[in-house]
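User: For my dataset I need records formatted as: sequence, then structure tokens, nothing else. Please produce one.
Assistant:
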Amino acid sequence: MIRFFLGLTAMVLFIACGGEETDTSTYWIVSVSSGDISEYDGDGLPWDVDDEPDIYVCVTIKNQKKCSTTIEDDYYPLWYEDLFTHISSQTLMDGIFVEIWDDDIDGDEMLCSGKITIDQENLDYGSVTIVCQNNGGSTIDIDFEEEY
């Protein structure tokens, strides 16, 4: 499993290194699949007063931002939702920006965000796990499927 560790607006702290040559002419579908959200926010408080968090994920690639639907009241959200299609390997390797949010009536609360540099090993594996360091290690999986 390849993991990226993000803090609030932090850069990637760990990047797995691949030794294979990259085919930059390959195109990919980028999706958000699942998450495992900590019961408490970075201050040690529950996300919502009476409920579990309402999580959504935004991914920005080349200044284009797309967000998943919000999964309400769930510590283990499942999306399996395509956010981008026809994204070149080179574009992914230039980096993507990921934000993880809790949707609240009185203003959304960011779990974490950061830029991730994708390499060939990530693409070969087909997925990266993003770990938010500032709130109990909440995780989100971003998947890459080769487009034919």
